[in-house]
Amino acid sequence: MLLIIDDDIAVQTSLSLLFRKEGFAVRIADGPFETREVLEQETPEAILLDMNFSVDTSGDDGIRLLRYIRERLPNVPVLLITGWGSIDLAVQGMKAGANDFITKPWQNDHLVQSVQTAIKLAGATRHPGEDVSASRRQLDSQFQFDNIVGEDPRLLDVLSTIGRVAPTDAPVLITGESGTGKELIAEAIHQNSRRKRQPFVKVNLGGISSTLFESELFGHVRGAFTDAKTDRIGRFELANRGSIFLDEIGDLDAASQVKLLRVLQDRTFEPLGSSKTRTVDVRVICATNRNLEDMVSLGTFREDLFYRINLITVRLPALRERPADIPRLVNFFTDNLKILYGRPNLQVSKDAQHWLKDLSLPGNIRQLKNVVERAVLLAPGDTLTVADFEKHLPTNPQPATPSPALPPVGSMTLDQMERQMIERAMAYHHNRVGHVARALGITRFALYRRLEKYGIAYSTDE
Ligand SMILES: Nc1ncnc2c1ncn2[C@@H]1O[C@H](COP(=O)(O)OP(=O)(O)O)[C@@H](O)[C@H]1O
Ligand SMILES: [Mg+2]
């Protein structure tokens, strides 16, 4: 049974006709009182809740009713119907546990599809104590997640959340340390969305200056600045009708934050040097390894921008929080790479799988993948042993080169030490700024600042 909560007779009639035609049993409730009555008799498969069902257009009644439903029936999907332009209500509603929202005027097939998806997904939510692999299998049967390995409950929660929100246009914020799979998750959101056949455009905002930011994201016209020899289309326009992935959003300076806020608010912008306003239809996915909440309270990240991008937040666990997934990841990488490198008989020994679990890998899955890749490429035999992996751990100091003693106190300032570390890391990583920043555990932006400070030469194209 589908429960429709709305007080507008015209809407009640057209919705119940539509869903009866699709084979649903339909019940109608005019407001909170009737809703309670229905729920006492029957449990619906899904609920459609019009947020503006009462005279009180603030939507407070809708939110209150939604909370009541959530508490009483935590597993029944609730889809909100909101008026156009009341995205804030949808935001509040999604935070209060709604499964999706539809804006008026809706398209019938889209609405039916959203309800059907929500019902299917509701079956996929995990219940405490349930067999983990079973819930992983269930997720896999509903979404395209084949390239995302893991059975850790935190990862499965992330997957079920992104599965739930992928079909909507809700912005998603992905947080987690470097190398935990943020970009992979962003791609999965796009791939499981209605926009999957449209562009997925990635932008790395790390260390980008505010002028560069503008021309990169919004484009420019010829002559907008000295080097602007031709017109250039910005990333937002390239992403039109698809999704844009704004990586390292915590690195944006204040001026760029303002400019981004505007396009997120009303989907409009002007290319640099042009006065013609463009409008785009873009789904926004952001990622950062920083704690934006802290940055908001410190005043380095705008609260209004934060509010825009974090409608849905997912946090990816660090690899050390999910050691049981390490053997699964190692086998997955080995299986893929052995084909690529023409070594079909390669296998990872049980000892090695066990040993890899206890490693501390600050670079998380990215680092694990690198280690496996080198082992697959260079191991002499068909069975990968502990020794085959151990060789490729960058954190393991080679016995031949003992770590240098620290210089005596007073012989060097902190700045001088920092400079030396950066120069060594630049040499080691062949001036690849991304690698160096990761190795030193700082953002690209922070690295650029220091490179400038110490006058160390670098290039920004990698
Ligand atoms: N759960 C996972 N299963 C398989 N590969 C993964 C997983 N998470 C991350 N990876 C791989 O690890 C590498 C780093 O992931 P990425 O998404 O770039 O991390 P981040 O953006 O958080 O730094 C990529 O090669 C990615 O494909
Ligand atoms: Mg990344």
Account of the protein in words:
With 462 residues, the chain is of the alpha/beta class. The protein has four domains: 2-122, Rossmann fold, CATH 3.40.50.2300; 164-315, P-loop containing nucleotide triphosphate hydrolases (Rossmann fold), CATH 3.40.50; 319-390, Orthogonal Bundle (Helicase, Ruva Protein, domain 3); 414-454. It contains 20 helices and 16 strands. The strands form five sheets. It has a five-stranded parallel sheet with strand order 2-1-3-4-5, sandwiched between helices. The protein has a five-stranded parallel sheet with strand order 7-10-13-6-14. Helix 11 packs across helix 13 and helix 19 (433-440) packs across helix 20. The radius of gyration is 26 Å and the shape is globular. The model is unreliable at 125-129 and 396-403 (pLDDT under 50). Magnesium ion (MG) binds next to helix 8.
Give the biggest sheet.
Answer: 5 strands, parallel
Extended strand count: 16
Strand content: 5-15%
The CATH class of the largest domain turns out to be: Alpha Beta
Q: What compounds sit in this structure? A: adenosine-5'-diphosphate, magnesium ion
Please indicate the count of domains. 4
Average pLDDT: 87
* CATH homologous superfamily grouping of the largest domain: P-loop containing nucleotide triphosphate hydrolases
Question: In a nutshell, what does this entry contain?
Answer:
Helices cover 46% and strands 13% of the residues.
Short key terms for the protein model shown above:
462 residues, alpha/beta, Rossmann fold, Helicase, Ruva Protein, domain 3, 4 domains, five-stranded parallel β-sheet, 20 helices, binds adenosine-5'-diphosphate, binds magnesium ion
